[in-house]
């Protein structure tokens, strides 16, 4: 199963990249009202934002990659690797978006890394 780790990591990286692109796009659009009229008026902005569109495309690529992984390895082996996306997002959020990373978040990230390391060794 370890021979599929590069494909699993590709899935993790594309998942991470899709989230970053979606965040970038939605940050430029800003908050919108969750009423029907608010959603309708913001729909065009969302659908024409290059970062959102690219984020959705990358998310589809990530999902396709994940499906390929699932066809080759046990889900109990592959799925925990997706937790690495949380690690990458936390690091990116802290260094590029100036998000506060508390000790609890650091502890969570360390637990995720520990869990992935244990699963990768099995």
Topology:
Layout: H1 5-29, H2 36-47, H3 50-72, H4 75-78, H5 84-96, H6 103-121
Helix pairs in contact: 1-3, 1-5, 5-6
Measured on Cα atoms, how large is the radius of gyration? 17 Å
The overall number of domains is: 1
Q: What is the 3D shape?
A: globular
Report strand %.
under 5%
Low-confidence stretches: none
Count of individual helical segments = 6
| Amino-to-carboxy terminus distance | 9 Å
Arithmetic mean pLDDT? 89
* Helix/strand class: mainly alpha
Q: List the helices and strands in order.
A: HHHHHH
Helix content: over 70%
Count every beta strand, where a strand is a DSSP E run of 2 or more residues. Answer: 0
Major sheet summary line: none
Description:
By secondary structure, this protein is mainly α. It has one domain (2-121). The chain has six helices and no strands. The protein has helices at residues 5-29, 36-47, 50-72, 75-78, 84-96, 103-121. Helix 1 (5-29) packs antiparallel against helix 3 (50-72), helix 1 (5-29) crosses helix 5 (84-96) and helix 5 (84-96) packs antiparallel against helix 6 (103-121). The mean pLDDT is 89.
In short:
The chain is 79% helix and 0% strand. By secondary structure, the chain is mainly alpha-helical.
Q: Which structural traits does this protein have?
A:
single chain, 122 residues, mainly alpha, 6 helices, 0% strand, globular
């Amino acid at each position: 199963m370890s021979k599929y780790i590069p494909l699993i990591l590709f899935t993790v990286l594309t998942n991470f990249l899709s989230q970053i692109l979606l965040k970038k796009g939605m940050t430029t659009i800003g908050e919108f009202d969750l009423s029907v009229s608010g959603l309708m008026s913001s729909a065009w902005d969302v659908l024409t934002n290059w970062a959102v569109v690219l984020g959705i495309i990358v998310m589809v690529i990530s999902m396709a990659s994940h499906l390929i992984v699932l066809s080759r390895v046990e889900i109990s082996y592959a799925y925990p690797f997706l937790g690495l996306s949380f690690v990458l997002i936390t690091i990116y959020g802290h260094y590029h978006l100036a998000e506060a990373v508390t000790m609890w978040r650091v502890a969570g990230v360390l637990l995720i890394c520990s869990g992935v390391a244990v699963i990768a060794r099995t």
